[in-house]
Design a protein that fits this description.
Oligomer: single chain
Number of strands: 7
Order of helices and strands: HHEHHEHEHEHEHEHHEHH
Keywords: Signal, Transport
InterPro entries: DctP_fam (IPR018389), TRAP_DctP (IPR004682), TRAP_DctP_sf (IPR038404)
Largest sheet: 7 strands, mixed
Pfam family, one: DctP
Family: Belongs to the bacterial solute-binding protein 7 family.
Protein name: C4-dicarboxylate ABC transporter
Distance between the termini: 34 Å
Helix content: 40-55%
Length: 289
């Protein structure tokens, strides 16, 4: 986001200045998205799970094992289907600039190694505030708890939660190795990160400034994705160096997980919208071909 602010300042000759507040300094993702809609804050970079109940098509990203690789996810997000999802935010007074990054989510807990579906049962795990995420984890036998991310560390520290799921880079950045012992490599969900503007802020810009902000957003997308991939390759090693024990869930066990959540995916296809889901899967198939 600091890179984006610098690029905007350069591209607009200093006429648009952006102050960056990181690490949830001005609230949780949910609160920031509400503030973005009202125009109280001008820009947001983060996940869109908190508004997926309103924009149901966004729940496509909660479908487990949707994407196979980071490259595939990036290509599909930059496709017309991905742009459609950003454009649809207009009815919430939000202007979607770009899908800026994202990462695969994995599981951690403080109780025992998780190498199978059976090992998951009974764990009390924080999940994103998304209906499909809740339903998916419950289908796996876990006690799924929706919670703002700002509250997670304390809940893990006090053992109010056994675990949570997040990309490894974020686990390391937030020092989860202090309160979690076991890692499981599942890559079960890819959570994209969006760079958004409030309608109020975007509409206040001249056409030239709008073009400059969009161009800066696209440069930031490239910068962020490259940085995330570079960091991801080291994050797991760093977590293990801090004492966490990692388990890679084997293909047969991942198949068992997929089978357990099939009913959830089938049910939520109706919620998301059958036509859109089919179009999105067609975009993925086009990439793979």
């Amino acid at each position: 986001m600091k890179y984006f602010a610098e690029e905007v300042a350069k591209a607009t000759g200093g006429s648009v200045k952006i102050d960056v507040f990181g690490n949830s300094a001005i609230g949780s993702e949910e609160k920031m998205l509400m503030a973005l809609q009202s125009g109280t804050i001008d820009l947001y970079m983060g996940a869109l799970a908190p508004i997926a109940t309103h924009e149901k098509e966004l729940q496509i990203f909660d479908v487990p094992f949707l994407f196979a690789t980071d490259t595939e996810a990036a290509d599909v997000l930059d496709s017309p289907q991905g742009k459609r999802l950003l454009d649809n935010l207009a009815d919430m007074n939000i202007h979607g600039l770009v899908w800026a990054g994202g990462a695969f989510r994995n599981l951690s807990n403080s109780k025992h190694p998780v190498a199978s579906l059976t090992d998951m049962k009974g764990l009390k795990v924080r999940v994103m505030q998304s209906p499909m995420a809740l339903a998916s984890f419950k289908a796996l036998g876990m006690n799924a708890v929706p919670m703002a991310f700002t509250e997670v560390y304390t809940a893990l520290e006090t053992r109010a939660l056994d675990g949570y799921e997040h990309p490894f880079v974020d686990m390391y950045a937030n020092k989860m190795f202090e309160v979690q012992k076991y890692l499981t490599v599942t890559n079960h969900v890819y959570t994209p990160v969006a760079l958004l503007s409030s309608k109020r802020f975007y509409d206040s810009l001249t056409a030239e400034q709008q073009n400059a902000v969009q161009a800066a957003a696209e440069k930031t997308r490239t910068f962020q994705r490259e940085a995330e991939l570079r960091d991801a390759s080291e994050a797991l090693k760093k977590l293990e160096a801090e004492g966490m024990k990692a388990t890679v869930m084997q293909p047969a066990e991942l198949d068992a997980v997929r089978k357990a959540i099939e009913p959830v995916v089938a049910k939520n296809k109706d919620v998301i919208g059958n036509e859109f889901v089919d179009q999105f899967y067609a975009e993925i198939a086009k990439h793979r071909k």
